[in-house]
Amino acid sequence: MVNPPPPLRAPEKHGAASAWIIVLLALLVCVAGFFGVRELTRPPALESNGEAAPVITVEVEPAKMTAWKETVELTGTVEATDRLQIGSEVGGLKIVEVLVEEGDRVRQGQLLARLNTSLLAARLDQLQARYTQQQAAVAKARRPQRPLEIAQLESAVHQAQAGIDQEKANLTLSQAALRNARANLDRYSNLYSEGAVPEVESENRLLEVQRQEAQVRAAEQRIEAASFAAKQARERLQLAESGGRAEDVVIAESQLRELQAQIDEVQAQIEQAHITAPSDGWVLVREAHLGDIASPGAVLFEIARGGQLQLSATVSETALAGIEPGMDASVVYGGKNIQASVDRITPQVDPQTRNAEVILRLPLDSGLQPGMFASASIELGAREQITVPLEAVLGESPEYYVYVLDGRSAKRVGVEIGGRRDGKASVVEGLKLGTEVITEGGGFLRDGDPVARS
Questions:
Q1: How far apart are CA 199 and CA 66, in angstroms?
Q2: How far apart are CA 429 and CA 167, in angstroms?
Q3: What is the DSSP string of 115-172?
Q4: Are 452 and 56 a contacting pair, CB within 8 Å?
Q5: Are both 323 and 414 inside the same structural domain?
Q6: Cα–Cα distance, 451 to 403 (Å, whole number)
Q7: What is d(CA 202, CA 192) in angstroms, rounded to the nearest whole number?
Q8: Is 321 in contact with 282 (CB distance < 8 Å)?
Q9: Quick one: pLDDT at residue 403?
C-alpha cells in the first residue's frame, strides 16, 4: 500500500477567507432558488400590460329554486297618525295658566291652558247693561203710552162723544125754536096784511126767524167740530193701544239685535280663551308658556289624536304588489318585537327612488315615540323563489350585487334581495335559475378578474 502524501497546510489567514466566500455563495444560491421557484409557480394569465395576473381560487354554487316564505323588510319613522295643532282664536290675551305637559294623555274637552279674560268680562257687563236699556226702548217703541195715559185717552174719547150728543140735543132745540119762529112769522104776516097788527110786529117776527136759523147753523157747526175732536181722540187711543210707529219699532229692534250680536261675540271670545283638547290624545308639543301673549294662528299645543301612532315605512315597487291593508306586520325597535298591521298604502310611487310608502298601524301600548326610527317586516306567504347562499351577496341596500362565474372570470351582477333567512337570500331580480354564483373569495374580486374553481 502506498501511503498518500501528507496534506498541504495553507496559512490560517488564507483558510478563513475561503470560508466566508463559501457562505456568501451559499446565500446567493438560496436567493436565486427562491426567485426561480416563484417564477415557476406564477400563473400563466397575462394582465393588460403583458405581465402575468394571479388567478383567484373560488367556490361556486348554483342559484336554486326554493319554497321561500317571502318577507318584505321595511324601515321608517314613527309618527302620529293624526297630528292636531291647537292654538288660540283670540289675540292679545296673556296666558295665565298651563295645565298639561308634553307626554300627558288628555281627554276631549279637557282644559289645556287659560288666557286672561278680565277685560272681556268687563266689556260683557257693559254690553249686558246696554242690552237691558234697549229692551225697555223696544217696549216703549211698541207701546209708547202707559196704562194711565191710555185710560186718559179713553176718557177723552168718551167726553168727545158726550160733546157730540150734547150738541145734537142743542141742534134739536134750535130747530124746534126755528119752526116756532117761522110759524109766528107766517101768522103775523097774515095779520099785517089784514091790517090787524103794525108792520113792526111782522118785522120782529122775521128777525126772530133769522136768529133761530143762525142758532141752528151754529149748532150744526158745533156738532161737526165735536165729531172731528172725537175722531182725533179715537185715533190717539187706537195708536196708544196698537203701538208706536212701525219705523220706530224697527229701529229699536235692530239696535237690540246688534247689542245681542256683540254680547255673543264677547262670550265666544271668553270661551275661546279656555284652550281645550278637541279630542282624546297624547300631548306631543307644548309651546304655551306663562306670561306669553297669545296670537291667532300661533300653535300652543300639538297632540296625537287618540294617542294613535304609525310607522311610515318605504318599500320597493317590486315588493309592493304582495302587500295589502290588514296584513300583520312585526316592528322591531331596540330588540323589542311589536305586533302591528298594514293600515294603508300610498297610491303613488316615488319616480326618483321607485319606492312607495306603507303605513303600519301601531298598538296604543307600543312604547314607541314620534321621531323614532324602526324596522319592520311583513310576511307575504310561501312561494317558489330563486335563492343563493347569503355569503354570496355583497354591497349595501339598495345596491346589492353578486359575482357569477362567467367562463374563467368573475362577472359582477346587480341583484334585488327580497329577504334573508337560514343562511340564504332570496333574489327578486337579477339572476336566473342555475346561474353559478361565487360563494367564497368574492370579497377580493373585481369585475372581470380571472378565477378558478377550487
A1: 162
A2: 124
A3: E--HHHHHHHHHHHHHHHHHHHHHHHHH--S-HHHHHHHHHHHHHHHHHHHHHHHHHH
A4: yes
A5: yes
A6: 11
A7: 7
A8: no
A9: 95
Which three three-digit cell numbers place residue 371? 321621531
The overall pTM is greater than 0.70:
no
Q: Domain of 97: which CATH number?
A: 2.40.50.100
Cα distance between residue 401 and residue 410, in whole Å: 12
Cell of 422: 337560514
pLDDT at residue 222, rounded to an integer: 87
- Grid cell of 239 as nine digits: 195708536
**Domain range for 430:** 58-80+308-453
Amino acid residing at 103: G
Q: Say what the pLDDT of residue 331 is.
A: 92
- Rg (Cα) of the chain, in Å, rounded? 61
How many Å apart are CA 205 and CA 187, to the nearest integer? 9
User: Which residues of the chain fall short of a pLDDT of 70?
Assistant: 1-53, 143-149, 239-245
316 and 288: one domain? no
Name the grid cell of 329: 306586520
SS3 237: helix
- Do 316 and 341 share a domain, yes or no? yes
